[in-house]
Specification:
Layout (H helix, E strand, L loop, with lengths): L10 H9 L1 H22 L4 H27 L9 H18 L7 H32 L4 H34 L3 H26 L13 H9 L2 H31 L13 H23 L5 H21 L5 H37 L4 H29 L10 H17 L1 H7 L7 H18 L1
Helix pairs in contact: 1-6, 1-7, 2-6, 2-7, 2-9, 2-13, 3-5, 3-13, 4-5, 4-7, 5-12, 5-13, 6-7, 6-10, 6-12, 9-10, 9-12, 9-13, 9-14, 9-15, 10-12, 11-12, 11-14, 11-15, 12-13, 12-16, 13-14
């Protein structure tokens, strides 16, 4: 029985599971790059109104994400607890994502309503699929080492999604839309939606749940009580929220920065990539590099320390970008690559730490609540993305941004603040939160060994 702890997961399953993060990566990267620009600059919606929409959607997530985690933890089917949601949630995920940018001609007021409804439904579909997908990571193997290995594949595909958006999205928007940028954004999102559905079906077919479900004798309220009293969970959730907020604020403002501050007209500067595409691609390439480095270093160094190092790397990259000349394309690209490395550290380590925390809670309390625990990762990413899009919207509104017009000095200062200073400042609380993370290598090894013995006795 104990041999199951060391069961090796085949490469095909690692690839199948890892690819499951491609759809969410495509959605979040594309939303981060285009949703504020689509509705504010192209649609005429007030920046503050869009900011409020993004903030309210995060309030909704505060209920739906943990609820979905608790529901999937209690699901019992012949396919397992978490995999069925990949099968049945894939199509709604694809349809609702496409619907956001498929708005027909309408007044600004109705366009804002369209944003509320479609984005809300898309985030609900995202929760219904991605929370169980993340929960699946916690039961794909009882070995922390194997889970960390699978997490690396997941984060590779997350970074690949960023490359796809950086390399293909900006080009597809230009080629498919022609003179109609809004149409190009809609059609590009349609392509990504189809890809998302196919990939989720593939992930369902290639993965397996290896940790058997224990009887659930506790209420959702009880599980939530245990979760919020777990200091490690709070520390990682806080760090992840601010870490993602930093990236999201920068990404959602980048289109405005290049258009209004740098004076970029969308002309390709490297092969078929314009400066915005090169910016997104550099972030994604850096993210993949960061994932690889963090995976190699996490066995030697504590994860919390590496997460702090990743935050410092991001601050260095943001600072370099801010001080080089506006037309220094390649120094800017390199500095954004450094930001991506720091982001790769965050993504790999945070998701790995959430599954460690799920095992720790099981070890300490005897309660299996994997998806509920890991749903914090989804909630952290979504709330970080939401605030990362909302706060620039508020800044643009307060500093006098006017869509499709030459911007005032205060509006340009607002864009620069949301693009550089804000992303750097929020990394301070992200790093401080890691000082309260206490699950070191020694503790996790003890947890893993004790749980292996407990599960062997129960079979």
């Amino acid at each position: 029985m104990p041999a199951k702890v060391h069961e090796k997961i085949r490469l095909s399953e690692k690839l199948g599971y890892g690819a499951g993060d491609l759809p969410s990566g495509l959605y979040l990267n594309f939303f981060g790059a285009y949703i504020l620009y689509f509705f504010v600059d192209l649609g005429g919606v007030a920046p503050a109104a869009m900011a409020l929409m993004l903030l309210l959607s995060r309030v909704f997530d505060a209920v739906t994400d943990p609820l979905m985690g608790a529901i999937s933890d209690r699901t019992r089917t012949r396919w397992g607890r978490y995999r069925p949601y990949l099968l049945f949630g894939a199509v709604p995920f694809g349809i609702t994502g496409f619907a956001i940018f498929a708005a027909p001609p309408m007044s600004v007021g109705w366009l804002l309503i369209w944003a509320y409804v479609t984005y809300g439904l898309a985030m609900l579909a995202f929760t219904a699929v991605n929370v169980p997908y993340s929960g699946l990571l916690g039961v794909i193997s009882p070995s922390a080492k194997e889970r960390a290995n699978v997490t690396a594949f997941r984060m590779f595909f997350s970074g690949l999604a960023g490359i796809v958006v950086g390399v293909l999205a900006t080009t597809l928007v230009r080629e498919l839309g022609g003179d109609d940028e809004a149409r190009g954004i809609m059609l590009t999102m349609g392509v990504f939606s189809v890809v998302a559905v196919v990939v989720y079906f593939t992930t369902f077919a290639t993965t397996k749940e290896r940790i058997p479900a224990a009887p659930s004798n506790t209420s959702i309220r009880t599980d939530l009580g245990v979760l919020v009293r777990t200091g490690a969970w709070i520390a990682v959730a806080v760090s992840a929220v601010f870490g993602v907020l930093s990236i999201a604020s920068r990404a959602s403002t980048a289109r405005f920065f290049f258009k209004y501050v740098a004076g970029d007209d969308g002309t390709p500067v490297f092969l078929f990539l314009d400066r915005f595409g090169l910016f997104l691609t550099a972030l994604a390439l850096g993210q993949i590099t960061g994932v690889i480095l963090a995976f190699m270093l996490q066995q030697r160094f504590e994860k919390a320390h590496l997460l702090i190092a990743g935050g410092v790397t991001k601050v260095i990259g943001i600072t370099i970008f801010a001080i080089v000349p506006l037309d220094a394309v390649w120094p800017q690209t390199f500095s954004q690559y450094l930001v991506g490395i720091g982001f790769g550290f965050l993504m790999l380590l945070a998701f790995s730490m959430f599954t460690d925390i799920a095992e720790f809670i099981d070890w300490k309390s005897g309660q299996q609540m994997t998806a509920l625990t890991v749903s914090a990762s989804i909630f952290a990413v979504k709330i970080g993305m939401g605030f990362g899009g909302a706060m620039p919207g508020i800044v643009l509104s307060l500093t006098g941004f006017v869509a499709q017009e030459e911007q005032s000095a205060s509006a340009l200062a607002g864009i620069n603040f949301a693009f550089a200073m804000l992303p750097a400042l929020v990394l301070i609380p992200a790093g401080l939160a890691m000082l309260f993370y206490r699950l070191d290598h020694k503790t996790i090894t003890q947890v893993e060994n004790d749980l292996a013995a407990r599960r062997a006795l129960s079979e």
